[in-house]
Write a structure and sequence with these properties.
This protein has 479 residues and is mainly β. The chain has a single domain (11-473), classed as Methylamine Dehydrogenase, Chain H, CATH 2.130.10. It is 4% helix and 43% strand. It contains three helices and 35 strands. It has helices at 11-16, 89-97, 245-249; strands spanning 26-28, 31-34, 42-51, 53-54, 57-58, 66-75, 78-85, 130-134, 137-141, 148-150, 157-160, 178-179, 186-193, 196-204, 210-219, 228-229, 233-238, 241-243, 259-261, 267-273, 279-284, 288-298, 301-309, 333-340, 346-352, 356-360, 372-377, 389-394, 399-404, 409-411, 415-418, 428-436, 441-448, 454-459, 470-473. Strands 2, 30, 31, 32, 33 and 34 form a six-stranded antiparallel β-sheet that branches. The radius of gyration is 21 Å and the shape is globular. It binds cobalt (II) ion. Cobalt (II) ion (CO) binds next to strand 22. Cobalt (II) ion is lined by residues 175-176, 225-226, 290-291, 469.
Amino acid sequence: MTATQQPAYRLSDWAEGYTTLAKEYDYAIDEIEGCIPAELQGTLFRNGPGRFDRGGISYKHPFDGDGMICAIRFENGKAHFRNRFVRSEGFVEEEKADRILKKNVFATLRPGGFLNNIFDFSFKNVANTNVMYWAGKLLALWEPAPPHGLDPRTLETIGIDDLDGLLKGGLPFSAHPRRESETGDWLTFGVRSGFQTDLSLYRLKPDGKILVEGKHTIPGFAFLHDFAFSENYWIFVQNPMALDPLPFVFGFKAAGECLRLAEGQPTRIILIGRHDGKVRTIETDPFFVFHHVNAFEEAGKLMIDSVRYPRYITTQEDRDFRETDFSQLDPGQLWRTEIDLQTSRVETKQLLSRTCEFPQINPGVMGKPHRFVYLGATDRAEGNAPLQAIVKFDMSNRESVVRSFAPQGFVSEPVFVPHPNRTEEDAGWVLTMVYDASRRRTDVEILDGQTLQRCARLSLKHHVPHGLHGSFVSEVFAS
Ligand code: CO
């Protein structure tokens, strides 16, 4: 790359992807290029903010946007699209009033300055981070609070689901569950943090039963967005962060704006024994993580693959998020953390320098050695920028297959769907939604899991805002 090289994208094209989609649709997708594989049967559920403004006032952070679920149903070579907002209490009230009434976690306060926010610990549950299907329930996940239950066929909101009282009183429930392939159980957690951190570990059985696998208190503040598991451990990475509670309590700032990097503090890797519940904390050089790829044990070592940042990514003060200066932001990159389980010695190595996020693997290798990682990534191999490409990274030879949608396409998380009749780790499809700024519309891309060649491009009739996480289930929900 030369110094004079133009960026691969226009910032205004990327920012347009944060336009509110107010309308709710329900239609058979008829603009299809290529062929939908006949073996691809099931439903892709995706969650992400769908509304970014209210009553003419823009939310300050995209993560404050109201959760909107998309369901793309694949059946016999055909596809169907539906989207619905989660009817959270806050959404319904604000929809009626057509103005911002609630305080948000990330950065949006109620209008009216600090007197209108002082001592207000209530948050709007925006239900916008992930969506999981478990034991007949479709759950819209948002980590500070219990999930919202939805009808998997119509996406209609049933209401807050406290999981048979487990989350009574509004207990938190992570947006990053991981499935154990042998049992079909979901492992997940809830975390509430202040000057210390309370962590609950849950196992969700396919028959709807829930087991509490442990409750732990960890010293200090912890922002635990994701976790990983291996054969013997629950794995959490405690980023070196601290909470400045005063501006939040007094109403000057939203909670997300009061987080800061704790200078000189290490990153702590917290291992909780899956069989004995013993907690072991291992300190290493500071870094920041939202998402892990996977973890596994091999020859007395624990491997944890993650997308790492050199420090906590904060909102750029006094700048609209649509004007984000990517060149000033630290990139997320793929790293391996290797822990010798005998000596607790930690070794870290960068696997890929290209900026990336939203790591995914074949769900069948969760907690076991994986060879292939799928990522949303930048078009260029160097420098920070919006995610415009899907990368398939091969751990065995460190080679990447890149499929870019630059200059005007912007990708979302790649979801890997295993082929039902094949056993190779990369046999299957990668599903991603790509916002095409040239047409101001979004396409659902079905890529071959081995080559990233396009199997089919399904053009939606409208745009879908840049989303967060989703999941594929093999059920086809007829409405
Ligand atoms: Co996440």
